[in-house]
Amino acid sequence: MNQYCALSVTKPVLCVGSLSMDLITLCDNLPEEGVDQTCSKVHWQRGGHSSIVSFVLSLLSAQSEFLGMLSRSELLNAIITEMQGRGIEMEHCPKTDEDPGFSTIMVAKKTGLRAVVHCNRNFPYCSFQDFQKLDLSIFGWVHFEARNVRETVQMMRAVADYNNDKKERILMSLRVSSCYRENRDLFDMADYVLFSRQLAMQLGWRSARETCHQLDADLRLPRSIKAHRPCFICSWGPLGAGCLTGAGVYHEMPPYIAKRVVDTHGAGACFTAAFIYATYIREMNLSDAVQFANRVAGHKITNYGYNHIAKLNIYPADVAKAEDVLSAHVSEDSEAEEVICRKFMNRPIVYSDGKHSTRLLGEYIPGSTALDDLLDECVDEDRDQRHEKSRLLASRSMLRTTTSHVWRMSGEIRVSKPKRA
Hints:
The chain has an eight-stranded mixed sheet with strand order 4-1-9-10-11-12-13-14, sandwiched between helices. A four-stranded mixed sheet has the order 3-2-7-8. Strands 5-6 form a two-stranded parallel ribbon. It is globular, with a radius of gyration of 28 Å. Helix content is about 30%, strand content about 20%. The protein has helices at about 50-60, 75-85, 130, 150-165, 180-185, 195-200, 210-215, 265-280, 285-300, 340-345, 355-360, 370-400; strands spanning about 15, 20-25, 40-45, 65, 70, 95, 100-110, 115-120, 140-145, 170-175, 190-195, 230-235, 240-245, 250-255, 405-410, 410-415.
């Protein structure tokens, strides 16, 4: 995370899952069966849901750590270096000599639609033993992928056990994109369940509303029993998104209409990262957080990759009320390094070496002028120091311009002008 960011006071977000490689192939149109076609551009980029979530969180200036199996293959060096350069912690990741999994994504430039072919070759997944090495007290949120149920359920139970006697609970979110029946037992332990639109359509659910209510009905405990129930969130792409609170209240948010659709790959992971950011960092309520996630996902599809997300205004007027945001009235620059949290925290700090602070800690006596005299004395000292600094600078300037001889008791020394670079 950026060391100057104001959000560094929050605990990091731990993302547990996979890191792979995506081969992006840009075509005018998606290829038809039995037809040869020439692509216009091919490039590699990061893959794996949790790795993308952690990377997008860093673009939004939130601390994150990634836990997943890493391949020692040189193919991943550039991706790992980029993640470490964004401040994403990866020191607890186990490693293997096997080649990383990868996916081939064909993107149609005219429509932005894509076709994906996965090739994971049973790449190993991080285990519960790897998870046990972490100090859970440093995290405020843990995000899981609903895969490898045997290991994931132990990790979620470990977080739940940690929360039993703690005032500050670690929040848990779960991304479900496949194997619904196998992963259904994980839902009860999560605080937020983010469900894939593609999986919902495979199950015959035709809208975000129907998906959220079906997921709630499939929980093991009925609503008549007062027990913890997760919030369900389902993004329905161009039709918006819906969410169901633990109390059973449903909200539906309209989509964010992008000016152009360039690349939809990774939009779901960006939606997840933005939801975590809005809920955990910005402390938005459920519906506002989902609407903010819609906005970030809609902005992601306007360009290739993910770096342009850093240029997005993180204080949208249509999500948070202006009076609730201290810096809502401040305009942002367009570049990524000029967003509000960096722009106002990058100001230089002038230290007094504790001189003024310690001298001002003396006892204050009402009606006396001792404190005022002390303040005046400090101001006079600062003025004297500035005058002394100006005098030294002036003398150095004269020394640079002189071409005369300088005499000392030990002999003659010639001073010449410094060479210009």
